Amino acid sequence: MTVLLISGSPSAPSRSTALLEAVGERLARRGARVERVAVRELPAQPLLLAEWAHPAIAQAIEKVAQARVVVVATPVYKAAYSGVVKVFLDLLSQGALKGKTVLPLATGGSPHHMLALDYALRPVLQALSARHILPGVYATDAQISLTPDGAYRVHDDLSLRLDEAAETLAAEGLKLPATHGFEPVHFSRVRCSV
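Request: output the structure for the sequence above.
Response:
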């Protein structure tokens, strides 16, 4: 049950990485093994020149191959996902996300860019053959605040949306039982009397 968190922010720390880590923490509490790829930490020249044989690039691509679930987080710049994410996704083969469940996450300065998830990132994830792309979570800068110690804190309203996204990802991508509500009942177990 490997979950791969792909951070597409060119800076650290960042709001999009805080969003990503919040989902990762929720999935880890459910027993998922969480791996990470911070694209900004990959060597720039091999990344830009698509040197698939470079050890760091090959290892990052292998993490994608081994993951059952992929969570991609990016800041939104000029109504699109970051160039850092673009460069990494360009390295992946056309079937790299085949059979995987993907959760896209994004942050931006205002609500005006929330459709970047659906109109910019989702088509690329589909082109990589993702089996199931969950509805993304978009957060504005105002929903993730910088604390005095330099870390980012996710606000309560956003935290609830992340709870729901992580629960859906756990159920649909990792096939984990629900943590709330009723357990599904097979039809053969249903009894009724008249």
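The first helix runs from residue 15 to 29.
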